[in-house]
Write a structure and sequence with these properties.
By secondary structure, the chain is α+β, with helices and mostly antiparallel strands. The chain is built from 3 helices and 3 strands; from the N terminus they run H-E-E-H-E-H.
């Protein structure tokens, strides 16, 4: 099965093996949002194992090995 390259480019893997991504839908049209909403959209979020099963992770990210 091939890795989804467009999705995998949006992710970063930390040293501990956590997967970090930006929140979706926060690129533009934020002028009318509350300041707290704007700032929370800039923070990254950790994609946990609860949201992605290992099979789905392998499909979208590829094989992840801890260093």
């Amino acid at each position: 099965m091939k890795t989804n390259k467009s999705f995998s480019k949006r992710l970063k893997i930390t040293r501990k093996g956590k997967i970090v991504a930006r929140k979706p839908g926060q690129n533009h049209f934020n002028a009318k949002e509350k300041r707290s909403t704007q700032m929370s959209g800039r923070r990254s979020q950790v994609i946990s194992e609860y949201t992605m099963t290992p099979k789905v992770m392998q499909r979208y990210i590829g094989k992840i090995g801890k260093k």
